[in-house]
Amino acid sequence: MYALLDFKGLVMRDYHSRKSAELLQDSEGKFTITTAEKGIETFLTETWSEVIRLVGSPANVIAVLDGGYDYRLKLYPQYKAARRAKTVDPVLSAQLKICQEGIKAILEAIGVTFVGQKGVEGDDIIALLALKLEGRKAIFTLDSDLTALSRFADVKLGREWYEGNSDLVTLRKSVIGDTSDGYPGIRGVGEVAFGRMSSDLGTAYMVGLERLLAERKWAELEKLQGKHPVLDRCLADLNVWVTQFNLALLHPELANDLTWIRKVPETHVMQEAMNKYGLSDMAEGLTQWCTSYTLVTAANIKPVLEIILDLIPVTDFVAWDYETTDFVGNENFRLAAKGDYVDVLNSEITGMSIALGNNGQYSYYFSVGHADTANVDKKIVLGIIKLFEAYNLRMVGQNIGGFEGIVTKKQLGHCLKYRDWE
After folding, report:
1. pLDDT of residue 131
2. Are strands 154-157 and 137-141 parallel, antiparallel or unpaired?
């Protein structure tokens, strides 16, 4: 199960939900500003605790960043105008920035994936992920717009799981407007009028209206004149209605150039971040997600294999890489490739790295051909590969089809059994 975090909104919520014991002075000299450190602590103890209980590992968490709202601003220049014009105390602004940067640094250090795209709102990226990711998803947000995705994912709206009907979320906003986003809705039509129209026409009819708007079937819409007085008001102002529908509608198609970031979960990086924000006493609880490194030799091969067997049931995939040496060293090949050539056919295995665990946090290096080392036999490497194949555990590498697969065949006499190696 994946957790999709509406990152900025969650950070803002947790920062403002608890006051720090010692408040900072605002620009007027009053002690009103909560420290960033308190916001970070609140996020970790409340939001993060709930997220990790649900999905089990940082590897299953995707934090979505807001990159702006170029599309909607072009469509409607007043979009979020009041929010943009609002003056924020510079001390508060600085603490919010530190809080957001701190939480991001800590989550990155334990292996949470971050994704964003310049000019694209987080809502649209979350919509894409909810539609495209396989398996169950849970969205954590404060934005009711995302309840439109409740057909495709569980939605935690604020502190409660959303259990309402998602069918008319977008249509409703297009008619009554959204004060937070700065568009007013259809003149003379409010919540009560929209509810009356929905009740009179029925949910199926209203869903059909939304579909006609989404599919831009203007002629079909205009044929509905006279069906209901509230609908007539909307149709009389069709251009406004269409604009506001597109403002309210989630646009996963905009998320077409995403930047993905997932860092190796490192203990020292996590501890440095926790120390920086005065949370060193909480670091121990996050260590379980950080990478441990084990050199495997003939001396410890037996207990390591026992541990690997225990890890297989909680591992979704194995990260895999060979270390090799070119035992022929054909100088003509090297010159022809200007130094970048790798002679795959003459590459001899000197070691193998694998990473397992529910966060990929258990890393093992099997020494096969190193000097002054109690190397393991290459048969052990082959046995581990066959073990993963027997458990249908997918092995992921940078170039398995073009390198590791060939080296495995040449050096170990084994053809990998995966149809989809990478």
Report:
1. 95
2. parallel
